[in-house]
Amino acid sequence: MEIKKIGILTSGGDAPGMNAAIRAIVRAANYVGIEAYGIYDGYEGLITENIRKLERVDVSGIGNKGGTILGTARFPEFKEESVRRQAIETLNKHGINALVCIGGDGTYMGAYKLSLMGVPCIGVPGTIDNDIVSTEYTIGFDTALNTIVECVDKIRDTTNSHGRCSVIEVMGHHDPDLAIRAGIACGAECVITTKEDYSDENIINVVKEAKKLHKRNCIIIVCEHTIDVFHIADVLNKDGTYETRAAVLGHIQRGGTPTAFDRILASRLGDYAVELLKEGKTGVCVGVKGEELTYMDIVKANELPKKYPAKLVKQFKHFI
Ligand code: ATP
Q: How far apart are CA 30 and CA 27, in angstroms?
């Protein structure tokens, strides 16, 4: 089937660099004579018919903007086949005969299921969590990591002035990549990456060890969904080795200007998605391994075992 019009949507949590990907897809499509259409608010836009043609000028100057100009949404109804059938009717009505879906593994499943129903779809990894195993890096991860480093550096300044300990929760959605890399970049004293890593007794030993080394401050980074940072602060305040404060960085990690790394990654992956659609590929997701662009069947990609950065964790221990 010759592809004449493609739709682009962003879905799940937003990530800096999504706009650079949208821009690249529109430009790459136009370059080969394909029209591009923005579908607003993720898969929901296919039901509400929130669809607009994107000309090349519509994506001028968005590559350096955080968030997503298309908006994003969680739309669990898309798991139902009847809802997807309705979405396909909308696509047919607009003459859109292929989709590029930017998001995480949930977004990938939506794309895969549509592809099984005959709509060529490609998944592009857009999430700050770096939790998609089929690619070395997801769009937004590098920006989020740099935001975390900047925030932790600032917290460290005041923590040091007061001779305190700070316990800081970072995002990652069960994936410890952001936490461990932030720990290395910020010179943290401890990173908690899994529930199993943690006991009250161990964390007290960590700060006592820091005190023995004459450290004036102590930084503990905690991956979200592991241990409550306010609980850890309570434990450490009761222990009394350092006065302790807790902070949850929260959504600040998802916003902001994408780094050059994310802009380039997003541009390359967006362009590659259009190339694959032109070649007739469907139900696959794109990724990067070193300098190489890769693609893989979405189901296979989502079934890959989660990676644990064991080497980074081991090396981290040498820097304390
Ligand atoms: P993040 O990593 O930021 O959470 P994500 O893409 O994994 O991103 P989800 O909320 O899991 O975020 O999925 C985004 C959307 O994809 C859902 O709201 C839904 O519309 C669609 N989706 C998720 N899982 C499925 C599925 N199994 N079948 C069809 N559509 C799905």
A: 5
Q: Is the CB of 244 under 6 A from ligand 1?
A: no
Overall pTM surpassing 0.85 (yes/no): yes
- Using CA positions, which residue lies closest to atom 30 of ligand 1? 110
Q: Degrees (nearest 5) of the Cα angle 88, 38, 172?
A: 95
pLDDT in tens, 75-130: 999 999 999 999 999 999 999 999 999 999 999 999 999 999 999 999 999 999 99
Ligand 1 contacts CB of residue 137 (under 6 A):
no
| Dist CA 46 CA 253 (whole Å) | 29
Range 5-140+258-304 classified under CATH 3.40.50.450 = yes
- Cα of 106 vs centre of ligand 1, distance in Å, is 3
Length of the chain, in residues: 320
Which atom of ligand 1 lies nearest, measured to the CA of 108? 6
Residue 214 CB coordination number (10 Å): 6
What is the CATH code for 141-255?
Answer: 3.40.50.460
Q: Residue 88, exposed/middle/buried by CB under 10 A (0-12, 13-18, 19+)?
A: middle
Count Cβ atoms below 10 Å from residue 294 Cβ, excluding itself.
17
Q: Alpha-carbon torsion 289, 101, 128, 22, what sign?
A: positive
Token pair for residue 57? 């000028």
